[in-house]
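Ticket #4471: structure export looks truncated?
Reporter: QA, pipeline team
Priority: medium

Steps to reproduce: submit the single chain below to the structure queue and open the exported record.
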Amino acid sequence: MLAVVLIVTLTAVSLANSRHATRDRASISAANTAQTLRQSIESEIDQIDLLLRSAILGLEREQVAGSRDPAVLKKLMQASRALLPHVEALRATDAVGMVRYGDGPEPPAPIDVSDREYFRKARASQWGLIVSEPVTSYASQNWVVVFARRIDHPDGSFAGVVYATVATERFQDVLANVQLGRNGAASLRTSSLRLVARSPAGARDEIGSDKVSAELRELMRTPITSGTYTASSGLDGVERSSAYARVGPYPFVVVTGVSTAEAMAPWYIELWGTVGLATLTLIVIASSSWLLVQAWQREIAHAAQRLREADRHRAWLRTAGDGIHVIDRRGRLIEYSDSFAAMLGYEREQMRGMEVTQWEASDPEVALQWCRTTQGDQRFKTRHRRADGSLIDVEVTSTTTVIDGEELIFGASRDITERRRLENETRAALQLARSSEQRVLDIADNVPAGIAYVDREERMQFVNAVLARWLGVPPKELIGKQIRELLSPERYAHRKLIYDAVWRGETVRIPESIPSLRGNVRHTETVLVPKRDDSGQVVGFYSLSQDFTERIRMESTVERQARNLAAMTSISDDIMVVLNEEGEIQLANRAFEELWQLPPGGANGRTISGMYGNSFFYDVIRPKLRHALDGQPVKVRTSHALPGRPTRVFDASYHPVYNEHGLIDAVVFTAHDVDDLVNSRDELAHTVEQLQRSNESLEQFVRVTSHDMREPLNSIAQFVRLIEETGTLAPPADQYFGFVKRGAARMRTMLDDLLRFVRLEAAAIDPDDAHQLDEVMQEVQHLLHAQITQTQGEVVVEPLPLVRGRRSLLVLLFQNLVSNALKFTPPGVPPKVRVSATVEADRVRVTVADQGIGIAPEDIPTLFEPFRRLHRRQAYDGTGLGLATCKRIAMVLDGSIEIHSNPGEGTRVTVTLPAA
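Actual output as written to the record:
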């Protein structure tokens, strides 16, 4: 009877302990999952809060800079939202609740959030992050949670809010990352217990519901931040072992639950196995007692067998609740519990006679070797193969014993697959939290501001790269340092008073102008924001520093340039006016104000239509203004008369003005009075016409003179030739006739050069007439072959490009230049001439260089005068029209010519011609 009571008591105690342990495991699993979700969601909200702070800083920076361009502010919001793509929208409102700019889904109509609770809280001077209950988005019609922060004007008055909307589906995705079993559930609720998201997802209308169990509602009335409880869900009625955790300083609570029925399922299997085992034991004891009464003699014979049975049962009791099995040294299964068969997916009878290699997933030889060599108590982890081929992770506890002289191995296998899965999920959640933390650090390092976190002992716990660069110290060397180590005693004493205000919970702004060692001044503003723990105590503060030095320097430069521009425009006689799209004058120079007899600045704010009339503005000015606003400058010549004044001619232009973002926001109108110039041009045209007629008359005179003089010259030359052919001339008469012959030849050459010179002005040039200078120079060398041979000269022509012009003029131009280079050479010295060219944009510079006698610099300006000679005809023959002809040809070809020389150093003549 005592044995029966003992077995029943041990079985009840074992089952009670196992049931309590199973419930504890479920509660611990739910609590761990809740804490993991709490960390993930708190990290998400920290990132959103940092995003809002960054957006507010950007808006305040633009506000200080005076920018009101919606496109710029929208780009700013887009850049901020790009840091957290899962934020559905990032927008900013004005003081009355109207959304002015932002980034996110386009709303069907302008958004007014003045009726939202978070807006009213912000307007009522609430600082810090404001979180709304789940609401329906005006823009996307999705359920969202709104995170908002107040914006202030520089004077501290309310300017609106910046808010980010996060779809509840985002939190749904975070909750879906954890596994709580088939009937498990995880939810995120606000501090008022309104549902934000749930996994598995329920109906859409469940969002915002506050149906929860009475146990959770009672626990939420306490200040405890986390805990566990068992209750039926208010939504689906399923009983769960649940855990809750408040999300840091934010008004959220994470609730996770594991189905009680699902968590207790292994225990019920254990319950029936243990009860069956105990029942079997009781039956055996009862049968043994009955047999003892009925056959005492047989009991003696079987006493040893009963002892073996008792030893086996005692071994099973040591490992009760797990998969119990007994194997011999050959690895053959001797005995096993029902729970072991169930663990491996077999019916009990199917496992009879199995070997260890049939369920052990490791190498069969290794398993058999272990059976042969294991000794004493062992605990290890391995994997078992189930009947369906799947593998499970198990923890095996074994011991060896000897029964009837045979060594047996008693083992208990515990399925740890679920525990391994939870461990993996926990590691994954921790990795996710580390990744989120790293993303926050990356964001902080890329924010254009110095960021630091200081603990209660005034030690640096975090420093971003920007602040470390300002301080000139690597970030790692700053961690752990106290502020007093980084500041001079005087600055620290001043800062200590500020830190005391922060420790009292105040947010402090510190504008500073800090002189550097180089004598420069750095302008900064630092904001110190206290951080509180769950109890509301200040445990540290965040420091956010912005460097405004460059902006102040740029503002000073812009102001100086504006003064310079005003001074420049004030002395100009041209009219200069800056107009907006409606023709309103933004700025006008003194010339315009004096034209209208206005005081300085008196034109600003006036409209062109009001000053010149509507018809003049809309018919004349407005079309050109629109072209300029589209980025197309306009230049026109027009005439206009102010009331009571004569009509005058103006050259007007409209040029777009681009702001720093590349957008056109104004047009500069200028008007230059060209009335006198136009009148002068008409007079000049008349004078040119008279000169052309005079040149034509001169050319006609030269032609007639050349023709009339050529006849007597030809006669003189012929008679001289006939007299010379007679051979009757005696000295010095033959010498005198030689002078006459050469003089007639020179006069004929002079007439040819003179006629060619006056004809150059009328030469017509085809703009598409292109010639290869290499070919031109080949023709020049052919024409000058006799001179080159006679002087034993050398002409080197480097590769030359294409030029535009008439070929005959080009040949004449370079023939004269090369001929001069061959001619003006010291006696007895063979001339050397080099022709080269360079291309500069649309012009070609051709240089003809020699090593001749050179020219004095003071004589160079007179060389291009007709009939100008520097040497006697007896020394160097010529008419004095060569270089004058070259200059005239260069001008006709839309080019120029210049000479560089010194006596005895040769001469370089450079001709500039249009490139083809």
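Status: closed, not a bug. The export was complete when the record was re-opened. Leaving a note from the reviewer for reference: DSSP finds 25 helices and 33 strands in the chain.
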